[in-house]
Amino acid sequence: MPVKPAPKKEPAKKEEAKPVAEAAPAAAPKAQKAEKKREKKHKEEKGVRAMYKAEGDKVSRTRPTCERCGPGYFMADHHDRYTCGHCGFTRYKPK
Length: 95
Ligand SMILES: [Zn+2]
Known about the structure:
The chain is mostly beta strands. It contains 1 helix and 6 strands. About 5% of the residues lie in helices and about 25% in strands. The strands form 2 sheets. Strands 3-4-5-6 form a 4-stranded antiparallel beta sheet, with no helix packed on it. A two-stranded antiparallel ribbon has the order 1-2.
């Protein structure tokens, strides 16, 4: 077997020192997320509870029912109109 001459200078060995140092500082800036303000005004009820209002023994409906679909179909309460989600009937609120 012919003896290979030992390799004299290997340029690859010089790059080993760099990548270790760069990985560390990337993980730092995550701890700064500010706490979101969780204050929420609870003025509107949602779901079925928004449709009815109980006063003593009696229960009253807070929204009109649809004229086309009949009782049981409440109309959505928008700022200027009531709308039926079932058939699309819209009645504008009097000003
Ligand atoms: Zn309807």
